[in-house]
């Protein structure tokens, strides 16, 4: 199934090129916020909501996509846990770097057609896109064994970990958690529709020009290890999001007026805009300095990393 949030944060099902309203199946759900509604459906999906949704879908009439306003399918995840340096850079790295991660603000999330706003308060040397596979947790997870990882995954989604570089030598908060720095969507795909999460092509375009184009089979710590490690540190709950990291080959600057599109096999395509009131300009295209540095082809870090 492909679940969406649309218009005034109604829950819907993507089917036959349109959206079926699922409100009829959710009338008994006590959900103060849109995210609470999504979490409730995720937490009891197999026991209650899959059957209800299938029944409504069998008789519902889809609303054409061009007649709805898609929102992020996770309006405000309880936690966004991001893996850091979690790719082997197309085999350039002979072994994984030490496992690492960080928290990103849930307030950073935006959805289809919305705008990444580059902050003017802090003068970043450059802003980058980072296309990533997002993994949505399906049930409470504490000290999960790597062998059992699939039991805790509800589904998958496109996620873009927008980053401000060079604001601080070691602060992920400054780099990652600005409002609008987490484009997510356009829909949430249940795990049964993804044959192999470790063999998905991830692509990102800026103004129609391909930037990132890599496969999740290059992931250093795959989902069994990732979920085992994260759940040993913090309790994972339904609706939490794990961003699995990015392959840095293909990263490049984003700037005022850019149109940014991202697509992962089977997960749809999300398109967002970029706005910068200062109208700062950087070179167009790939940042080869960060690509070479992360892949170990250069011992000299980019200028922004030496600040």
**Average pLDDT figure:** 95
State the fourth-level CATH superfamily of the largest domain: Fumarylacetoacetase-like, C-terminal domain
Q: Describe the main β-sheet briefly.
A: 12 strands, mixed
The domain count comes to 2
Question: H/E series, N to C?
Answer: EEEHHEEEEEEEEEEHEEEHEEEH
Kindly provide the name of the CATH class of the largest domain: Alpha Beta
The number of helices is 5
How large a portion of the residues is in β-strands, by DSSP E? 25-35%
Could you give the distance between the termini? 46 Å
**Based on DSSP secondary structure assignment, what is the total number of beta strands?**
19
Instruction: Assign a percent range to the helix content.
Output: 10-25%
Unreliably modeled segments: none
Quick summary of this structure?
The protein has 307 residues and is of the alpha+beta class. The protein has helices at 34-43, 45-59, 172-176, 223-231, 288-294; strands spanning 2-6, 10-15, 18-21, 63-64, 70-71, 80-83, 101-104, 109-110, 115-117, 126-128, 131-137, 153-160, 163-165, 182-190, 201-206, 209-215, 241-243, 259-264, 269-275. The chain folds into two domains: 2-71, no CATH class; 80-306, Fumarylacetoacetase-like, C-terminal domain (Fumarylacetoacetate hydrolase, domain 2, Alpha-Beta Complex).
